Amino acid sequence: MATKDQIQSLMAGATCEVTPSQASKVEDFRAHLAEGTAVYVTFLPGSDIADTIASAVKLRAQGMVPVPHLAARSIPNVAFLDESLKRLKGEADIDEALLIGGGVDRPVGVFDATIQILETGLLQEYGITRLGVAGHPEGTPDISEADVAEALARKNAFAADHGLDMYITTQFCFEAAPIIDWDKRIRAAGNCLPIHIGAPGLATIKTLLKHAMACGIGPSMNFLKKQAMHVAKLMTVNAPDRLIADLAAYKADDPDCGIELVHMYPLGGLKKTAQWTRAVQAGQFDLNGKGGFDVTVEIG
């Protein structure tokens, strides 16, 4: 069982994510997040990169650290990438980005994988040397396990060869066991990139199930399915306290653990997830007898 200090340590520096649509509805991010918080901005299939850029500009102006997604399969060509990076650097002063393949079956242009984005050299040219790459503790239906392992090895090598500050940001999970198994497996295979574990923010079980199915979440979704069998619980707001506590205990027990921090997905809204995150960071919670913890301030 993790201690309060271990839980706070894991949650220190937690990052979060918004879509451009969500960002446009937030009047001032400083009302919800501590200044200096890293906020990822999505670039979803079929969306306009200009919206991602505008959100990054807003976040920077309001004291946050914008981390735009660059989705390889949604980038048509090198010129588009060059212009996008030029604007992101010039208008939002970014020095960090998250590289993902992107959830489309067929690339819109010349890029099929994130390593191809890296190999253009444009990120380094614009001074963007802190880079996240995607991780999938429960696998992904789009790529075979062997191909995923090969891609991760190539990214490790590329980061080492080019002096990049690279890390892995994962899809969200609901239970710690698949994450722990995955961390040990990729570490044994030679992974040296620190891991930012994705955790679902506060949302109803119904909402979490919807997002989990859309994202292809694997075995850990059984945690939700068991609760969803009780219809009355579908609209119950779920917090990731048990997940965080189990990962904090694992990190404390294993000095070679690859997990560095937590990346929050505010599936039920930024306000509630941000309130919960800041309460945990401040130690405003009590351990409970169920392996998790309960925050001691009102959320809502």
- As for the CATH topology, it is TIM Barrel
Structural class, please?
Answer: alpha/beta
- Let me know the number of strands: 12
Largest sheet: 8 strands, parallel, barrel
CATH architecture heading: Alpha-Beta Barrel
Mean pLDDT: 90
CA-CA gap between termini? 28 Å
| Helical residues, percent | 40-55%
Q: Determine the number of helices (DSSP H or I, runs of at least 4 residues).
A: 12
Order of helices and strands: HEHEHEHEHHEHEHEEHHEHEHEE
Brief account:
The protein has 300 residues and is α/β, with parallel strands linked by helices. 42% of the residues lie in helices and 19% in strands. It has one domain (4-204, 239-281): TIM Barrel, CATH 3.20.20.
